[in-house]
Design a protein that fits this description.
By secondary structure, this protein is mainly alpha-helical. Among the domains are: 65 residues; 54 residues, no CATH class; 68 residues, no CATH class. Helices cover 15% and strands 5% of the residues. It is built from ten helices and three strands; from the N terminus they run βββαααααααααα. It has a three-stranded antiparallel sheet with strand order 1-2-3, with helices on one face. A hairpin with a 4-residue loop joins strand 2 and strand 3. The N and C termini lie far apart (173 Å). The relative contact order is 0.03.
Length: 440
């Protein structure tokens, strides 16, 4: 479409056409006989004056496009070609030339990968919210408040629980709980419960409790208070306070590293054995029955099955220690076990596993240990020497250090041995029979 000025002759008149071809405004100039004859100086001047008068009106009727075009994006002062192309307004360029950092909402993290129209659904780009909920649905149903940034970041919805700053309330996230994803506890995020959840272990770990086999928690009737044995760090490495009620059986030394099922046979965790009653436990009863030095089962009153700890300790079953003084017969000097003394075994004195001896410490002769020795002594002959050398009076002269290291207080008879009456070399007496002739 273009603007032209042209003329033509019709009968005896000249017409001037001014306008947009093929249309325009026809104006008669003057009558004449022919176009060529009418082209006088006056006519030419008149034509140009009419043309020049028409131009301002034409300019006002068709202003430049730049002045009349209005952007649908409001006050967006960037060239159209930064986003659009020459072929069509839509779709816009894959990578528009627009610096979002110069706006009041710089794009960071996952927001950098979002297409413009996903946020700017309206053509006025400034007419868009800046809060999370303006674009994102709150799957927590406002139970967690409106500040998404207290847990989430622009890096993504999946978060580390260290970002949940408000969880340090009635259930702090410690140990292994610190590495658990929120939805592992708060099931079904869209309808999940984020407040008022039970803090009891079995509310999340009931299946773990039911599947525990070493030991079997269900068969053993374990309480579901998991934290009494387990820590927040791991299910493994559980510890039981065996010393505290209701168990009251401290695990010390050799007991400390024994697998539970070695004692709790058949998953019987309801044992009511006292810490000293080793023999009646399923652990040491067979050992008590098989012990032969001394033979415990033959002297059950002295070595009762319920009193193993009287002699044994938890360091080793073999390191037994019996306080013989509790019997009224303390073992001193040669009576002690070798190498401190000369006794090699309990049966040296307790012949035939007789642990019911009622011998006083001074009645050596009547015991099974020294009776033969008393009978065989001939200097003097004790068996023929009367009451002073009775079998029940050995301790009057002998001591447990050495049987032959004899000391007799002759003054106790009313006849003190002094001067030459003493035994040589202090005196001249060679043997008791020097005076006590015929063992009198």
């Amino acid at each position: 479409m273009s603007t032209v000025v042209w003329g033509f002759r019709e009968r005896h008149h000249i017409y001037l056409i001014v306008g947009t071809a093929p249309f325009g405004q026809r104006r008669r100039i003057e009558g004449t006989g022919s176009l060529g004859a009418a082209t006088s100086k006056r006519t030419q001047v008149l034509c140009w004056l009419l043309f020049l008068a028409w131009l301002p009106a034409t300019s006002q009727a068709h202003p430049p496009q730049r002045e009349t075009t209005r952007s649908p994006h409001g006050p967006l002062a960037i060239p159209c070609e930064n986003c659009h192309n020459a072929a069509s307004w839509r779709p816009i360029r894959a990578v528009p030339e627009f610096d979002h950092n110069k706006t009041k909402y710089p794009l960071r993290g996952m927001h950098e990968k979002v297409q413009c129209v996903q946020c700017h659904v309206k053509p006025i780009f400034t007419n868009v919210g800046k809060n999370c909920q303006d674009c994102h649905s709150d799957i927590h149903q406002r139970k967690m408040g409106t500040n998404c940034a207290q847990c989430h970041t622009v890096q993504g919805w999946n978060i580390a629980v260290q970002q949940v700053k408000d969880h340090q309330n009635r259930f702090p996230l410690l140990g292994a709980h610190a590495a658990v994803q929120c939805e592992d506890c708060h099931k079904s995020a869209a309808v999940g419960q984020y407040q008022g959840l039970s803090t009891a272990c079995n509310s999340c770990h009931l299946r773990d409790f039911q599947q525990a086999k070493s030991p079997n928690h269900v068969a053993g009737q374990f309480p579901q208070t998991c934290d009494s044995c387990h820590s927040f760090d791991s299910w493994l490495g559980a510890t039981v306070n065996h010393s505290a009620p209701p168990i009251n059986f401290p695990l010390t030394n050799g007991h400390a590293n024994v697998p539970c099922l070695n004692c709790h046979i058949g998953n019987n965790f309801n044992l009511k054995i006292a810490a000293t009653d080793c023999g009646n436990a399923g652990c040491h009863l067979t050992t008590w029955q098989q012990t032969t030095n001394p033979k415990h089962s033959a002297a059950a009153t002295v070595f009762p099955v319920a009193a193993c700890s009287t002699c044994h300790n938890t360091v080793s079953w073999l390191t037994a220690n019996f306080d013989h003084a509790t019997t009224g017969f303390p073992l001193t000097n040669s009576h002690q076990m070798a190498p401190a003394g000369k006794v090699t075994a309990c049966t040296d004195c307790h012949l035939n596993n007789n642990y019911n001896l009622q011998i006083s410490p001074t009645d050596c002769g009547n015991s099974g240990c020294h009776l033969t020795t008393w009978q065989q002594t001939n200097n003097p002959t004790h068996s023929a020497a009367g009451p002073p050398f009775a079998a029940a009076n050995c301790a009057t002269c002998h001591n447990p250090t050495l049987w032959t290291n004899v000391v007799f207080n002759h003054a106790a008879t009313g006849w003190a041995l002094t001067g030459s009456h003493q035994l040589a070399p202090a005196g001249e007496v060679v043997a008791c029979t020097d005076c006590h002739v015929g063992n009198n």
